[in-house]
Structure prediction request, 287 residues.
Amino acid sequence: SFRCDANISLRPIGETKLGTRTELKNMNSFRNVQRALEYEVRRQRDLLLDGEVIVQETLLWDPDRNVTNSMRSKEEAHDYRYFPDPDLVPIIIDDEWLEQIRQTLPELPGERKRRFIEVLSLPEYDAEVLTSTKELADYFEEAYQGYANVKKLSNWIMTELMREFKGEIGEDIASCQVRPKNLAALLALIDSGSISGKIAKTVFTEMLASGKEPEAIVKEKGLVQMSDEGDLVKVVRDILAKNTEQVAQFREGKTKVMGFFVGQLMKQTQGRANPQMANDLFMKELG
Prediction:
């Protein structure tokens, strides 16, 4: 469980000498650390303003009453029973040794974030989110090996993927059924026109549940995007024939009705119609 001790002292503005410190104990959460330190700041400030002396002592935090209580006083270092350990020899750390150790360090979060911004041209916000944990950054980089559109990849990870993990991804990402290479493959299917962005989200949900590759899911469920102009134009003409009122509105200049037409097409094709082709065909038929 979490345990923390904290030391604090106040130094009045203009003073050069550090103030007398007190040590706080019995804190088992970050919230209690914050409350204890805030209380101790107020207590020491009030004493100093009243001209009183701060006693160097160990204080016990009472989370129920939100106050500190004195445990014991410690006037000097010898009260802590400090003594040299004969088994610990002096260590001389030179610059050469430091550099050797530095070369063995893995890429740190700050450096990785900087690389994502400067080398991959990701926005700072995206880079900060993606490097919030090592596991998430590793996932992104593995997916990037199979899909080079970093911004689109970043968007999918930060929305669709992180939504499943309630916005926090750590070691538990190892259990995610959507492996990085399969996410890359899914986005490639969108770019190739095989599926639409809307269908991709349906496929992604199935990938989360089954762990299957996106191509297999698309094939099994017959989700390949309709891009055959001959098939689509029949549906387009049927929609226009059944919605003469909206056709008249469009020709009067109410171009927003185009969204209605495309929506009807998507409904009839179960979202499989190529959106761009759908727009082009409607414009052609209405022209």
Notes: The chain has a mean pLDDT of 90. The two ends are 71 Å apart (CA to CA).
